[in-house]
Write a structure and sequence with these properties.
The structure holds 2 protein chains of 2 kinds.
Chain A lengths: L3 E13 L4 E13 L3 E5 L6 H9 L6 E10 L2 E2 L5 H7 L4 E4 L3 H4 L6 H13 L3 H14 L5 H4 L9 H13 L5 E5 L7 H18 L2 E6 L2 H5 L4 E6 L2 E7 H6 L4 H8 L40 H5 L5 E3 L2 E3 L52 E14 L5 E16 L4 E5 L6 H9 L6 E6 L2 E2 L5 H7 L3 E4 L13 H12 L4 H14 L16 H13 L5 E5 L7 H18 L2 E6 L2 H7 L2 E6 L2 E7 H6 L4 H9 L5 H6 L30 H5 L4 E5 L2 E4 L27
Parallel strand pairs in A: 3-8, 3-9, 6-7, 7-8, 15-20, 15-21, 18-19, 19-20
Antiparallel strand pairs in A: 1-2, 1-4, 4-5, 9-10, 10-12, 11-12, 13-14, 13-16, 16-17, 21-22, 22-24, 23-24
Helix pairs in contact in A: 4-5, 4-7, 5-7, 7-8, 17-18
Chain B lengths: L1 H29 L4 H5 L5 H11 L5 H13 L5 E2 L4 E2 H36 L4 H14 L3 H15 L14 H6 L1 H31 L2 H8 L4 H39 L4 H10 L3 H29 L7
Helix pairs in contact in B: 1-13, 5-9, 5-11, 6-9, 7-9, 7-11, 9-11, 10-11, 11-12, 11-13, 12-13
Classes of the chains: A alpha/beta, B mainly alpha.
Chain lengths: 709, 316
């Protein structure tokens, strides 16, 4: 065991609000050795960020450490004079925050911002500090750092900004690094690069690192130990391998079971945790997880379990489990589900029927068809008269089809055009070229009332459950509005329908008279789902339906979406950056890169037989919640950043980041080639052998072959 | 950037012509000709007709307006009959004094309001913050002449520290600058009113910025509170106040009006007041146009300043 650099003992932090006290962190112990990474996993509100801020003495207003000790080597930080603490901050203990755009000062150049701690703590001159800044920016892998010293944060991409933030933290070579969700806002390919940078630097500089995250995959491969936090308490702490394979706390078990994984069978429902985390202004008397726990007994509700265990594995539970959950379709333990206002159907979700056999009869038109769809947003310039100088190529020549009842997934990194494509499908935007056909008819050929009626067929569920519901409308009005717009039913019938829907998405009837802000994120997403279902659409487009939700809430919504889709026999298009989510929900998947559809296939085609190097790299970079797999990963997958969609690379757009690229890739745009009954990819050097060319295959929509294996 | 400024200035020309047209139409509706001011109300019908013909007031309104516009292009604002001088000469003489009064008041109010707003934000909800807020609201809701009257009563009549009005010895801009005691009360009155508005704005802007993550990062770097405020907060919090200052340029002119009358200070405001009471046509239109021009310029200036201060903003 290396020398402990940071020792936290029995730490309790409270935040005093005007009327209540939030018991944010209670009796936390942890220890990080030199050159060691400690993982701290928890959902939002678990107190993990407050713990980090307590160590730095940077608690928000009203927050203070009420007990325990924090030791940096031999020095006690709790109760230290602000002056002395300031000398430690940014110098011996540094922190990396989640959101690099809001965490960097928008009006200062990045060079100055990196140099600032050096001038402050090392007494360096402006020149020396800038030299040091250059050195550190190079260390964190910022390309061409000298040219970028005078750039401002908004001129850099998210990945580069995060590197700048790491550079600020490392500028004074701290002994302890607190990384609070350092990669959460980033795309998976960039996330892999950043995590690699952090790994390398830790080892080189011998820092003690506290890696705070909600993502089990991120900590799996890079920390020796993992602490799991729930509602302000550490509920389990163990060496990584042991935590993933032999966890004892039911919360850890559920958390791991509720993550959709690429290799898992999508026909099985996800394990989900019913209900919501407790209110920390008034925490329950016993175990804080008791209300959501399948194994809770009277003892759990009355008495708080102490952290017990042996060796290096400790847990706080009266009725510990033994290893990962075996998901069986069974009734939940009676009385386990709380009387909360959330659907409690947990592991008893009926396995969805294999997507109501898509109308596979040859010759029948697909429900939705996109033919060579193009969408470009103009970029204007000019002193006196604005003129179009260029355009952002958001969607370029995309062709695909979706059959009735089928679920189609669309994945890609941010900026790949997946949301633009979603908007085209719903008809919020008009394609610049190509056709979007619903049941063989083009939406924008219609006018007036006809257009309005046609819009019923495709409905959308939006990403942001906070921004997409009108805060001044009650749930009843939100759900009735689509029917009013479409002139469906009398007021009474509309009301009846709204009540039915609420039941379907698992919300109580009293939700009708409430406003969106009275609901949690997961509940709001249920309302958004209900709104999309009001008009009984034939296709539902869901844009990042769960990415704003916590892991344990995510699986509730995913299971619900899957169930309702099969019950209604609806087709769906799920858009997400998360391949695992898409694979869980979809029969077929399309992979987008920089405006182009590069690969199409079933979940297994994509995951097991990826033909396009981009798809393969994307799969490789996704952090898997399994330490053995994560540690075995050698390279970071895709290097570099997404090129600008204003001026995309010629030929194959992926060639600038592709390990297999050759000259032909820059000269010719690769055509879609067939690799299986429903598997296609556009690559000159595919990783699979293509099927021999038959008749000219027109894009993706030529064959209406059923897509299920 | 240059192209942007040219485009904005072209817009400004259109705005000024529009304002001229509306003012012109309204004045002509009230009184079709300034003849009564010149010849008096007892003038004979014949004399009026002759005068109107001589000065072009018998032509159709649209022709009169076009010839007025033509004069404007040549920077000829017409003749002030009551003052027996061209309007441009009058404005040239008075503009400097008004600009001095408004300018000093503006600078003074910024010097007070920016730090006050930040301090209030940092010490939010403290007794000091509440007290400052109370004073600010009282000042903000007070008519300017009323505040002026109170200050005259208190500082001039009761305490005798300053003269109650500007004496007739202040005739030129230079003499206004060299007699600070004479101008103390008008400047303070104007400045206090602006402090109230600016510091409220600054306080809320600083509160927004204080909640930003980059402030937390600045603290995590080990900066002292003072360093955080000076190096990170000040510039970002001031950005939104720049727009407010730009918008308040024309209201400084309007604020001047009452203050200049109250303290008998010979500026554009007093000139306009005298023109108004005498229905002196060209003075009134010119003053209104000046307001329009200042509004447009104030906005443009604010936008350019923001573009210079905030690297994220690009004009175009």
């Amino acid at each position: 065991m290396p020398t402990p650099a940071l020792k936290v003992h029995d730490l309790t932090t409270e935040i005093q609000l005007s009327r209540a006290t939030v018991h944010a962190v209670g009796n936390v112990d942890l220890e990080i050795g030199e050159g060691e990474t400690l993982g701290l996993v928890g959902e939002s509100g678990s107190g993990k960020s407050i713990l980090g801020l307590s160590i730095l003495g940077l608690l928000p207003g009203g927050g203070h450490v009420t007990g325990g000790s924090i030791k940096l080597y031999d020095r006690e930080l709790v109760g230290m004079k602000p002056r002395e603490l300031r000398e430690i901050r940014g110098n011996e203990i540094a922190m990396i925050f989640q959101d690099s755009l809001s965490s960097l000062n928008p009006t200062k150049s990045i060079g100055e911002q990196v140099a600032e701690p050096v001038r402050l703590h090392r007494g360096a001159s402006r020149k020396e500090a800038l030299d040091r800044a250059l050195e550190v920016l190079e260390l964190v892998g910022l390309p061409r750092p000298r040219e970028r010293l005078s750039d401002y944060p908004h001129q850099l991409s998210g990945g580069l900004r995060q590197r700048v933030m790491i550079a600020i933290a490392l500028a004074c070579e701290p002994k302890v690094l607190l990384a609070d969700e350092p990669t959460t806002a980033l795309d998976v390919t960039i996330q892999a690069q950043i995590l690699k940078v952090l790994d390398d630097l830790e080892q080189r500089l011998g820092m003690a690192t506290l890696l705070v995250t909600h993502d089990m995959g991120v900590v799996a491969g890079r920390s020796r130990r993992i602490n799991v936090m729930y509602a302000g308490r550490i509920v389990e702490t163990a060496p990584s391998e042991e935590l993933f394979t032999a966890m004892r706390h039911p919360y850890t078990q559920s958390l791991l079971g509720s993550i959709p994984r690429l290799e898992s069978d999508a026909s099985k429902p996800l394990l989900s945790i019913p209900g919501l985390p407790p209110d920390l202004t008034n925490p329950p008397a016993g175990c804080r997880f008791a209300a959501r726990c399948r194994f809770a007994t009277d003892q759990c509700r009355a008495q708080e379990p102490p952290l017990t265990g042996s060796g290096e594995h400790f847990f706080a539970c009266w009725n510990p489990v033994d290893g990962p959950a075996v998901i069986t379709v069974s009734k939940p333990a009676a009385g386990a589900a709380p009387a909360a206002a959330v659907a409690a159907s947990v592991i008893s979700e009926p396995a969805p029927a294999p997507a109501a056999a898509p109308a596979a009869t040859n010759g029948s038109a697909p429900l939705l068809e996109l033919v060579n769809v193009v969408r470009e947003y103009p970029v204007t310039a000019g002193a006196l008269l604005k003129r179009k100088v260029n355009s952002v190529k958001a969607v370029s020549n995309v062709s695909l089809y979706v059959n009735p009842g089928e679920s189609f997934g669309l994945v890609g990194e941010s900026g790949c055009g997946k949301t633009s494509l979603g908007k085209l499908i719903v008809g919020i935007e008009k394609p610049d070229a190509g056709q979007v056909k619903v049941r063989g008819e083009e939406l924008f050929k219609k006018r007036g009332g006809e257009l309005r009626t046609a819009r019923r067929v495709v409905q959308m569920m939006f990403q942001d459950p906070y921004g997409s519901l009108d805060p001044r409308m009650r749930v009843r009005s939100i759900l009735r509005e689509p029917m009013q717009v479409q002139g469906i039913g009398s007021a009474k019938e509309q009301d009846q329908r709204v009540r039915e829907l609420l039941g379907e998405v698992g919300l109580p009837v009293n939700a009708l008279e409430r406003y969106p802000h009275e609901f949690s994120g997961g509940q709001r997403q249920r309302i958004a789902l209900a709104r999309a279902l009001v008009l009984e659409p034939k296709i539902m487009v869901a844009d990042e339906p769960v990415s704003a939700l916590d892991v344990s809430i995510r699986s509730q919504v995913l299971n619900l979406m899957k169930r309702l889709q099969s019950e209604h026999g609806m087709a769906s298009i799920v858009i997400s950056h998360d391949l695992a989510v898409v694979k869980y929900l979809s029969d077929r998947i399309g992979v987008m890169y920089l405006g182009r559809l590069v690969e199409l296939g079933t979940g297994d085609d994509i995951y097991r037989r990826a033909a396009h190097p981009y798809t393969e790299a994307l799969i490789k970079t996704i952090p898997v919640p399994d330490p053995a797999v994560e540690k075995a990963k050698a390279d970071v997958g895709i290097r570099g950043e997404l090129p600008s969609p204003i001026d995309p690379p010629s030929g194959c757009r992926f060639r600038t980041r592709c390990p297999l690229a050759q000259e032909i890739c820059s000269q010719q745009e690769p055509p879609m080639r067939r690799f299986g009954p429903s598997h296609q990819a556009a690559c000159h050097f595919p990783l699979q052998t293509p099927e021999p060319e038959t008749a000219a295959t027109n894009g993706a929509g030529a064959s209406a072959a059923p897509s299920l294996s | 950037m240059i192209g942007y400024i040219i485009r904005r200035l072209l817009t400004a020309v259109i705005v000024v012509i529009g304002v001229a047209a509306i003012t012109f139409a309204m004045l002509h509706y009230v009184a079709p000709s300034p003849v009564y001011i010149v010849l008096g109300t007892k003038a004979t019908h014949r004399a009026i007709e002759v005068w109107n013909r001589q000065h072009g007031y018998d032509r159709p309104e649209i022709i009169q307006f076009l010839s007025y516009l033509n004069n404007l292009i040549h920077l000829n604002f017409g003749y002030a009959y009551k003052f027996s001088q061209p309007v441009s000469a009058l404005f040239r003489e008075n503009a400097g004094r008004s600009a001095y009064l408004s300018g000093t008041a503006l600078v003074l109010s910024l010097i007070i309001a920016l730090p006050l707003g930040i301090v209030q934000a940092v010490k939010r909800n403290s007794p000091g913050d509440y007290a400052a807020t109370a004073v600010n609201f009282t000042l903000y809701s007070m008519p300017s002449f009323f505040l002026g009257l109170i200050l005259i009563q208190l500082l001039a009549l009761d305490l005798g520290w300053f003269p109650p009005g500007v004496s007739d010895t202040v005739t030129s801009t230079l003499s206004a600058i060299t007699h600070p005691r004479q101008l103390f009360l008008p400047i303070i009155t104007l400045a206090l009113l602006n402090v109230a508005a600016f510091s409220r704005y600054m306080r809320s802007a600083a509160l927004d910025e204080l909640a930003q993550d980059y402030i937390r990062l600045a603290r995590a770097k080990g900066l002292s509170e003072r360093g955080v405020l000076m190096r990170h907060l000040l510039r970002n919090a001031s950005l939104s106040t720049i727009t407010l200052v730009g918008l308040s340029v024309p209201s400084l002119l309007a604020g001047n009006l009452l203050i200049e009358i109250l303290f008998n200070y010979p500026g554009l405001g007093l000139l306009f007041y005298n023109g108004l009471t005498n229905l002196d046509y060209n003075v009134m239109i010119a003053y209104t146009l000046l307001g329009a021009i200042l509004t447009v310029l104030g906005n443009l200036l604010a936008d350019i300043t923001i573009a210079a201060a905030d690297p994220r903003v690009r004009l175009g």
